[in-house]
Specification:
- The complex is a heterodimer.
- In chain A, about 65% of the residues lie in helices and about 0% in strands.
- Chain A is an all-alpha fold.
- Chain A folds into 2 domains: about 1-140, Orthogonal Bundle (Rna Polymerase Sigma Factor, Chain: A), CATH 1.10.1740; about 155-210, Arc Repressor Mutant, subunit A (Orthogonal Bundle).
- The longest helix of chain A has 21 residues, at about 35-55.
- Chain B is an alpha+beta fold.
- Chain B has 3 domains: about 15-70, no CATH class; about 75-120, no CATH class; about 130-315, outer membrane lipoprotein receptor (LolB), chain A.
- Chain B has 7 helices and 13 strands.
- Chain B has helices spanning about 30-35, 55-70, 75-95, 100-115, 125-135, 215-225, 235-245; strands at about 15, 20, 140-150, 160-170, 175-180, 185-195, 200-205, 210-215, 245-255, 260-270, 280-285, 290-300, 305-315.
- An 11-stranded antiparallel sheet of chain B has the order 8-7-6-5-4-3-13-12-11-10-9. A two-stranded antiparallel sheet of chain B has the order 1-2.
- Classes of the chains: A mainly alpha, B alpha+beta.
- The interface between A and B is large, with 81 and 78 residues.
Chain lengths: ~210, ~325
């Protein structure tokens, strides 16, 4: 698997467009001369990965996440005139995704959707807002911070995280592989994720760590 | 990021808003952990306590980020963007020609940026990919699939989840092994099979033995508590029917677990029959072999049923017995 390094989000592409940019994120109010659909495409390319990650935090099923992701950006396009260009696009579009999750709870069912209420989704979004504060040009570059944190993780926490997320093993399979109990695997995964969260917090710019 | 409040299940001290033990472990009450549905194999635990929400939100955010990190794929990403833009353009086209200029400008923009260099090769049509998969499934070999069936009630809540292993060959031959339930009564291991002419079921403890002609398969299905629609198990026929009954659409490309490019295809039933056996389906087709590696089917009345078939590979010939063993 290779990493996405080219697209409208890249500085080179932005320079080609002749846009005035405010790194790390494209500010929509800087793109006044661009046609709405082009502006939308730029913003979508900038944020589609973070919205997908946001949805994957609540949807068990990657296929359902793809469906809601498409719907999110379609809704965003339809109501683009309501978007205040002075505000960042990411939280706005994730807000649409959150509303769709809440609206679709019954249709999707709890077997496909983790517990969701507005408060929980708002708190998850806070973590995504924080991630956006880590200096990076693209979401993929923001994920570099997570990659770095992951590389610092050791022992069974790292093994559990890698087996679960990279190799797609269930807790039971990990337990068999590592020769430990099912509950121990769950704790390793939860503690590993907590370590990663703390590590990312440590990467926030100084002014954000109050 | 969220700062946590909450009691601890061990002695610990608060550091940076979190509870940590002597070895730097993150310590939270077991009751909070029980509400972490990202790792729950059983039924969801319901609404979590308010004081656990920050911790759970952080866990969920990391869960989403880790899933995204390990499923990054440039081609699939382009496929997503292209699919959304296509739907936007389709809406615009149906609304009138007023956006044609914007579409042309976008095309010019893409050309200017040289996206041709990074875009995936043009996607084959969904019909061609499915036809290729049907051709591959028609080869006279035994294929293994992991099968998961999830049944939801009318309220959308999960009512049951079953896992089986399926061996399937063309000609309506299959053999399904797993744990079945007859209504509220759970039996032990159970096998259902078909040699193409006759379907049969056999309980490992000898409490159940039944066979009937394929045309009368529904009777056996009912006796099995309607746990699974036997029609799904003839994978060749299931995929072959898709172009006849559904609108097929290529959604994009993505990497499979073995790193091979997979084509993601969505099938939506044309008549939209709400209680149809197959309402919609997702397929992943290996572009190198043409084989369908993942099928997810939604259908059934009321809350519906979701069946997932994960391709595991071919089984050595002679090891799958499709005929009834008695």
């Amino acid at each position: 698997m290779w990493r996405w390094r080219c697209g409208c989000s890249s500085p080179g592409a932005r320079a080609t467009l002749g846009l005035r940019l405010s790194p790390p994120a494209v500010r929509a109010d800087n793109l006044v001369a661009v046609q709405p659909r082009d502006l939308f495409e730029i913003l979508m390319r900038e944020h589609i990965d973070s919205v997908r990650a946001f949805l994957l935090s609540s949807l068990r099923d990657a296929v359902a996440a793809e469906d809601v992701l498409q719907e999110t950006f379609l809704v965003a396009w339809r109501i683009l005139d309501r978007y205040d260009r002075k505000l960042p696009f990411g939280p706005w579009v994730r807000g649409i995704a959150a509303k769709l999750l809440l609206n679709h709870q019954r249709k999707l069912g709890r077997s496909r959707l983790h517990f969701c209420d507005a408060e929980m989704l708002g708190r998850i979004d806070e973590d995504f807002r924080d991630l956006a504060r880590i200096p990076a040009d693209t979401f993929d570059e923001s994920l570099d911070a997570l990659r770095d944190c992951l590389s610092r993780l050791t022992g069974p926490q790292r093994e559990s995280i890698v087996l679960h997320y990279e190799h797609g093993l269930h807790c039971k399979q990990i337990a068999e592989r590592l020769g430990i109990g099912f509950e121990a695997v769950k704790k390793h995964l939860q503690r590993g994720r907590a370590h990663l969260h703390r590590c990312l917090q440590g990467k926030l710019p100084n002014e954000d760590v109050a | 990021m969220n700062a946590h409040d909450g009691s601890d299940d061990h002695d610990g001290h608060r550091a940076g808003g979190e509870m940590r033990g002597d070895k730097g472990r993150e310590l939270v009450p077991d009751a909070w952990r029980a509400h972490d549905e990202t790792l729950a194999d059983d039924r969801p635990a319901g609404a979590p306590p308010v004081e656990a929400k920050d911790w759970l939100a952080d866990q969920r955010a990391m869960h989403g980020l880790l899933r995204a990190l390990h499923s990054q794929d440039a081609a699939a990403r382009e496929g997503r963007v292209a699919a959304i833009l296509a739907r936007i353009d389709a809406e615009a086209a149906s609304a009138g020609p007023r956006r044609w200029f914007a579409v042309a400008a976008a095309a010019l923009l893409l050309a200017t940026l040289g996206f041709w260099a990074v875009l995936p090769a043009s996607l084959p049509t969904a019909a061609a990919a499915v036809e290729r998969a049907v051709g591959e499934l028609a080869r006279d070999v035994v294929r293994r699939f992991r099968v998961e069936v999830v049944r939801n009630g009318a309220d959308g809540r999960e009512r049951a989840r079953h896992e089986f292993e399926l061996a399937a060959s063309p000609g309506g031959r299959f053999r399904l092994d797993g744990r079945f339930g007859f209504g509220a009564v759970q039996l032990g291991e159970f096998t259902v099979g078909s040699d193409g002419a006759e379907v049969w079921g056999l309980g490992s403890n000898g409490t159940f033995k039944m066979a009937s002609p394929v045309a009368d398969a529904e009777r056996l299905q009912q006796r099995l508590g309607d746990v699974i629609d036997l029609g799904y198990l003839d994978v060749h026929a299931l995929v072959r029917r898709l172009p006849e009954e559904c609108e097929l659409r290529v959604i994009g490309r993505e990497d499979g677990r073995d790193g091979q490019a997979q084509l993601r295809i969505k099938a939506m039933r044309r008549d939209g029959g709400a209680s149809a056996l197959l309402r919609s389906a997702w397929l992943l087709c290996d572009e190198a072999t043409g084989m369908v590696t993942h099928i997810e089917v939604e259908g059934g009345a009321a809350g519906g049923r979701r069946l997932t078939l994960e391709y595991l590979g071919e089984k050595p010939p002679g090891l799958a017995a499709f005929r009834r063993p008695w």
